Amino acid sequence: MEKMSRVTTALGSSAISGRTMFCHLDAPANAISVCRDATQVVVAGRNIFKIYGLEEEQFVEKLNLRVGRKPSLNFSCADVMWHQMEENLLATAATNGAVVTWNLGKPSRNKQDQLFTEHKRTVNKVCFHPTEVYMLLSGSQDGYMKCFDLRKKESVSTFSGQSESVRDVQFSMKDYFTFAASFENGNVQLWDIRRPDRYERMFTAHTGPVFCCDWHPDDRGWLATGGRDKMVKVWDMTTNRAKEIYCVQTIASVARVKWRPERKWHLATCSMMVDHNIYVWDVRRPFIPFATFEEHKDVTTGIVWRHQHDPYFLLSGSKDSTLYQHMFKDASRPVDRANPEGLCFGLFGDLAFAAKESLISGDSNRKPYPGGDRRYPIFFFKKPDLTEQFAHVSSALSVFESSLESRHMDWFVKTARLYLLGGKPFAELCDHNAKVAKELNRPQVSTTWTMLRLMFSDPANLSTPGPNNISKLGNLPLMNSFSMKEMGTESRLDRSKGESRQDNIHLEPGNSLINSNNDENEETEGSEGQAEYMFGDAELDDDDLYSMEHEIQAVEEQEYTLPQEAFPLRHEIMDNPSVPEHLQQDKADSPHASGNEAEVMCLTPIESLSLIAISQPLFSPHLPAHFFCPVVREMLSHYAEQGDVQMAVSVLIVLGDRIRKEIDDLTQEHWYMSYIDLLQRFELWNVSNEVIKLSTCSAITCLNQTSTTLHVNCSNCKRPMSNRGWICDRCHQCASVCAVCHHVVKGLFVWCQGCSHGGHLEHVMNWLKSNSHCPAGCGHLCEYT
């Protein structure tokens, strides 16, 4: 153990000195507590119960309280508390439901003093009254809290929290008769020890179990709570209703919370799982810890400040079987490693950028924010300790506004609502989505859907094209149904007899010649069927390509004799060939021919149209679907990189197993989470739910199954009900009885989470318009929001 920095703190007539140090324990610790004079610490766990002396250089084992050959379960401790008035008095909460007190002044080896076995399940917490020597409070998994007078053999009062489990109980530091209790259902209750029949106040503090609570040592009305929702909340209890004044977001469930002595705004927390560090927070700066202790290698189970008036030493126990004394000067400061720059995009494309003021102060184009300077000065005492202050960085915020046109996001909302992602055949889904994209003036997306349909449709399930599909050049073939046999010698032009167009090219009656003047390209849906491909000097409209006829009649071959040359000599190709003189004369003499017609008439078939004839197929007539997967994968990545995660996710869902294996799960999950976040920002809850339901990623499909557990208490006996029905197993009464009309609710049922009473929605709403108390007469202040 290398020596680190050292400090000495004056506490009246005594002084505390030491350094950061640790010692190995025999077993993992569940809880620790320190004596009044800060010279000894007790460590308790399932297999350990020892007292260590806090010397300047190291921990020294003073006493082992686990005595006997076969220690009983009374030594298996879930919590321990050292009395702050009586230095020889300890109390432990046993896992078998026993509350045990220990008298260190006993001369015998066994220091056990009294044993209370009134709890039926594990006791989670014990707490001594801060000023009353003989008063002990306990909270158990059975939902009851009991107050013991150590001069008597049994509890003097029992408090029923009407909940499944009590996780923490704490006496108020300033109010003699008040204590707070936290529960697994998310509620926090305030009780008066003189009134065990009913709590004074109850409020829902967290969305999930509340694992810990702690009263502020100086401010009478402040109560800090921590829960499984990864939050630490500070409540002002001096008002009529508990008011949340601060909230700190952590990265894991909060197991312990302790206010820092002599520092009004600081509190320490540790986590129940995942995170092994101890954090000290300034509640005014909730987004980054003020200080961090990173020594433990496993979950920290207990934290306590060494002295109630010393803010520089923190003791902790952990499941890694170590006991640490942390000196605050050795703590790491996350703010020193934090990036002082920030960047964020707004919902409508605005960009906010924050950086050090020194970096932006030289920008002459920067306009002042219309709301004025939002910075506020930090107030210090006369000579502030720099180690007790956050690093002060003055930042400037720049907001870059996007144009009004770029803010227009109606296309996203309309697309999300109109897209079909399931429930119909693949081809119909692609056609529908292509039509939606085209109507929203997104031709590239529309073409993408059409190409996907051509690539992945099953040729065996194609429908016969109707008469409306007949157009200039037939129907567009599917890419996985290419037919090469019809592109052989049968479709060759008889070049040796090309003077007569009527003798060489025969089109069906429904077809017409190709017009050399094209309109602008348009995106249209593709019709089904097979056809030959034609390439040449003539340009084709997209309408022509997407509406080609099923089959072009083969060109009839003419009889001819083999010339002397195997290949006829080809004339020189010119960029702008001139029109033959005799045709020019005909064109000039004909008053009935328009410009376009004359241009068509003056060209030979070879110059106006050429056909590619393939006598042998180059590849298989039917391409498998997986042939196109690499292209589709690159296409999805392109859309995602361009910010159109909607297209990427929609194609993932529609293609399903055809493309799922080509993209890794992490990428899919990232796309899904981004799209779901956008949908929820636009309040498209139904579309978001459908995307989650149809997701091809297992990490996404489980989102609908989390945080949906409904815990229902019986409105008569207040006990939790099983999931087997609406009849309570204990009192055999129907839980869904309206508190207003006293009839069974067969439809929509609304109930108060505080008192479990409820009824018909309309009845409860009408009742609360003129009354603030529960209609069942329980006295609870119900509120409908």
From TrEMBL:
Which domain of life does this protein belong to? Eukaryota
Give the region (Disordered) as residue ranges.
486-528
A single Pfam family, by name? Answer: WD40
User: Which subcellular locations apply to this protein?
Assistant: Lysosome membrane
The pathway where this protein functions is: Protein modification; protein ubiquitination
Signal sequence, renumbered to the chain: none
Q: What is its EC number?
A: 2.3.2.27
Taken from the UniProt entry, a GO cellular component term is: GATOR2 complex
Q: Which one GO biological process term can you cite for this protein?
A: cellular response to amino acid starvation
Q: Which UniProt keywords apply?
A: Autophagy, Lysosome, Membrane, Metal-binding, Repeat, Transferase, Ubl conjugation pathway, WD repeat, Zinc, Zinc-finger
Sample GO molecular function, one term:
zinc ion binding
Start-end of the WD repeats? 116-158, 203-245
Q: Does the keyword Membrane apply?
A: yes
Q: Which SMART domains match?
A: WD40
Q: Does the keyword Transferase apply?
A: yes
Checking CDD domains in the record gives: mRING-H2-C3H3C2_WDR24 (cd16693)
Q: Which InterPro entries match?
A: WD40/YVTN_repeat-like_dom_sf, WD40_repeat_CS, WD40_repeat_dom_sf, WD40_rpt, WDR24
Basic and acidic residues bias spans: 487-506
Record's catalysed reaction(s): S-ubiquitinyl-[E2 ubiquitin-conjugating enzyme]-L-cysteine + [acceptor protein]-L-lysine = [E2 ubiquitin-conjugating enzyme]-L-cysteine + N(6)-ubiquitinyl-[acceptor protein]-L-lysine
The job of this chain, per UniProt, is described as: Catalytic component of the GATOR2 complex, a multiprotein complex that acts as an activator of the amino acid-sensing branch of the mTORC1 signaling pathway. The GATOR2 complex indirectly activates mTORC1 through the inhibition of the GATOR1 subcomplex. GATOR2 probably acts as an E3 ubiquitin-protein ligase toward GATOR1. In the presence of abundant amino acids, the GATOR2 complex mediates ubiquitination of the NPRL2 core component of the GATOR1 complex, leading to GATOR1 inactivation. In the absence of amino acids, GATOR2 is inhibited, activating the GATOR1 complex.
Which family does the similarity line name? Belongs to the WD repeat WDR24 family.
Q: Do you know which PANTHER family this protein is assigned to?
A: GATOR COMPLEX PROTEIN WDR24
Query: This protein is called what?
Result: GATOR2 complex protein WDR24
Q: Which organism is the protein's source?
A: Hucho hucho
